[in-house]
C-alpha cells in the first residue's frame, strides 16, 4: 500500500525560506533533485511521507505544518 501525504505547497516554500535555504540547498540536503523540490513547491507533485519528514527536519518545523488542511 502506498501512502501519500498532501502537503501545502505554500507552507513548504515558507518553511524553506524561513530556514534560509534555497531550493538547491534543500534539494541537496534531502537528497532529491531541484526539479522535484520545485514541483512540490509548485503544487504539481506530492512528496512521499519520508521526503516530507526530511523536508520538515531540514527546515526545523513539525511535519504537520507542511501538510494541507481540509477546509469544509
TrEMBL record:
Domain of life: Bacteria
InterPro entries membership: Cro/C1-type_HTH, Lambda_DNA-bd_dom_sf
Lineage: Bacteria, Bacillati, Actinomycetota, Actinomycetes, Streptosporangiales
Stored SUPFAM superfamilies: lambda repressor-like DNA-binding domains
Pfam family, one: HTH_31
Protein name: Helix-turn-helix transcriptional regulator
GO molecular function, one term: DNA binding
Residue span, HTH cro/C1-type domain: 12-66
CDD domains per UniProt: HTH_XRE
Species whose genome carries this gene: Actinomadura montaniterrae
Amino acid at each position: 500500500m502506498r501512502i501519500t501525504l498532501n502537503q501545502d505547497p505554500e507552507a513548504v516554500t515558507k518553511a524553506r525560506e524561513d530556514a534560509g535555504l534555497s531550493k538547491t540547498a534543500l534539494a541537496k540536503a534531502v537528497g532529491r533533485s531541484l526539479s522535484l523540490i520545485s514541483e512540490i513547491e509548485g503544487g504539481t507533485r506530492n512528496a512521499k511521507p519520508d521526503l516530507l519528514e526530511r523536508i520538515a527536519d531540514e527546515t526545523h518545523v513539525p511535519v504537520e505544518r507542511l501538510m494541507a488542511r481540509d477546509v469544509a
